[in-house]
């Protein structure tokens, strides 16, 4: 389990549990809406976790833009299907997202369900304070 210093709570073990329980799930990260890594599952390097967080934030931002522009409404989940991987990203509280990387044999519906259950059960623990809130509290942004 890896976790960025100063994160709101210990999320790594929850991500580890998700990855170990769900067949073909490889890695999971919790990230801030602006792409900063908050926590990652074990077996993922810091560099890979940070890169996945940045990619997931970008994808989620593009999906939000499409939803707003074309009347689709708020984004529930974004799924990218690659030749040998899936990347699923979902909103995980105010200012945070949950991303899961899975093998192509994965049951995407099961992973989406497990992600939704994790987000629902953890609620406030998956919230990232906005940078302006952090600055107002006197901490560096």
From TrEMBL:
Q: Which domain of life is it from?
A: Bacteria
Chain segments annotated as transmembrane? none
Instruction: List, alphabetically, the InterPro entries matched.
Output: Mycobact_SerProt_Inhib_Rv3364c (IPR053141), Roadblock/LAMTOR2_dom (IPR004942)
Q: Which residues form the Roadblock/LAMTOR2 domain?
A: 12-102
PANTHER family noted in UniProt:
SERINE PROTEASE INHIBITOR RV3364C
Q: Please identify the protein, giving its name as recorded.
A: Roadblock/LC7 domain-containing protein
């Amino acid at each position: 389990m890896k976790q960025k210093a100063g994160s709101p709570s210990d999320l790594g073990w929850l991500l580890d549990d998700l990855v170990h329980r769900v067949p073909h799930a490889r890695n999971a990260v919790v990230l801030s809406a602006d792409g900063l890594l908050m926590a990652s599952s074990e077996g993922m390097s810091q560099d890979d976790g940070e890169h996945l967080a940045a990619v997931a934030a970008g994808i989620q931002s593009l999906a939000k833009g499409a939803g707003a522009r074309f009347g689709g409404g708020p984004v529930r989940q974004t799924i990218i299907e690659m030749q040998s991987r899936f990347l699923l990203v979902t909103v995980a509280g105010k200012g945070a997202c949950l991303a899961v990387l899975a093998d192509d044999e994965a049951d995407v519906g099961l992973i989406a369900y497990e992600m939704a259950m994790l987000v629902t059960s953890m609620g406030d623990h998956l919230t990232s304070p906005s940078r302006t809130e952090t600055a107002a509290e006197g901490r560096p942004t």
